[in-house]
């Protein structure tokens, strides 16, 4: 079963800036989204629940330095993408 990825307008703007700034990561970014859609708990994503002011969000890894933060609704099988960028920027 696949999950539905929901791209908010604010996420699309952030993702567009991210891809323009880091075109070398485009294929890795797309691969991460495909894996997320199939299995959000896949070990290669290194999914984890955030704490503090971001306690309602989860994070997955594009690579060692870049992350995607997201809201994850298991019961609805929907994943709302929130932010993408360097780990220092999204946390």
Tell me the CATH architecture. 2-Layer Sandwich
Sheet having the most strands: 5 strands, mixed
CATH topology: YaeB-like fold
Overall shape: globular
Decide which structural class fits the backbone: alpha+beta
| Gyration radius over CA | 12 Å
Tell me the strand order in the biggest sheet.
1-5-4-3-2
Strand % is: 25-35%
Helix content: 25-40%
How many helices? The count is 3
Q: Provide the number of structural domains.
A: 1
CATH class: Alpha Beta
**Order of SSEs, N→C?**
EHHEEEEH
| Record field, number of beta strands | 5
The CATH superfamily is RelE-like
Q: Can you give the mean pLDDT?
A: 90
Distance between the termini: 30 Å
Which ranges are low-confidence, i.e. pLDDT below 50, for 5 or more consecutive residues? none
Describe the fold and architecture.
There is one protein chain. The protein has 91 residues and is of the alpha+beta class. The protein has one domain (4-90): RelE-like (YaeB-like fold, 2-Layer Sandwich), CATH 3.30.2310.20. The chain has 3 helices and 5 strands; from the N terminus they run βααββββα. A 5-stranded mixed β-sheet has the order 1-5-4-3-2. Strand 4 (66-73) and strand 5 (78-86) form a beta hairpin. The longest helix has 13 residues, at 9-21. The radius of gyration is 12 Å and the shape is globular. The mean pLDDT is 90.
Strands, helices and their partners?
Layout: E1 4-7, H1 9-21, H2 26-38, E2 48-49, E3 58-61, E4 66-73, E5 78-86, H3 87-90
Parallel strand pairs: 1-5
Antiparallel strand pairs: 2-3, 3-4, 4-5
Outline of the structure:
With 91 residues, the chain is of the alpha+beta class.
